[in-house]
Amino acid sequence: MTCRHCNAPLDLDFLDLGHAPPSNAYLSAADLNAAETTYPLRIKVCRNCRLVQTEDYAAADELFSAEYAYFSSTSKGWLAHAQRYTAMITERLGLSDQSHVIEVAANDGYLLRNFVDAGIPCLGIEPTDSTAEAAGSLGIPILREFFGETLGHQLATEGKSADLICGNNVYAHVPDINDFTRGLAAALKPQGVITLEFPHLQQLIEHCQFDTVYHEHFSYLSFSAVSRIFKAAGLRVFDVEHLPTHGGSLRVYGCLENADFEQTIAVASCLQSEQDAGLLSDNIYQGFQTRANAVKTDCSVFCWMRRPRGNQWLDTVPQPRAIRF
User: Is residue 63 part of a domain?
Assistant: First the structure.
């Protein structure tokens, strides 16, 4: 396997979690008596572009099937997050009934419903039938396709280019990140804006969040890597925000290379923070497996042990050992 972005050899290991079944793939009653499919869950790091990525085993159409079970609207906190974003970005970009908004991975309409309510024309791209049907029931136009460069050019040809393209927690989920990013560029108006939210690799490493590693995440994204991927597609990042969602995320703002948006000081600050944290060197990745193993083996389990004395039961608790990171 070579890097999904720059095709350099992948010889730097980051994390090996053995084998696991796909997440969000619940078993039916009939499936309970059959062997469950599992895939290796191993993460590599590109020494050239620093894109952290899952080894190629699980295909996207196997992970995001028609019966995909994750519905974003089940979280009240996430609905509130989407409402705040909609109000903020509408004001910042001056969106109106003359604008066009595209959301990639629109899920069940948790976000675009706010644009519909505001009278701002929008379109959702969502490949999973289960969630797309829910979004369509809210009056949201939905295309049931995987997004990429071909679809981006098709939308532009049909006069459906976007003033805003948003994608929340989708960028890490795409197997061909170059094709996806070129699609963003193709579907964007000359002065349009892209916003993408994704869990920040720096937070994953600093807080040992290896529980956020699963097959649906093909990439684990640093700001440095995303900036490089954008540039290769004719885009540039002009702003970035830190968010508390999903253990610590970034919201990046992108535009076409020649658009008028000025770069904010947050861009240089975020790049410097990642460099200071060691994300551009090998050592921080080489030591992560040991840290994950320590969490696994050194966290004491607080379990109640009951023993009889006559007609009574006494509860005892083992003394915890120190947790080492």
Answer: no
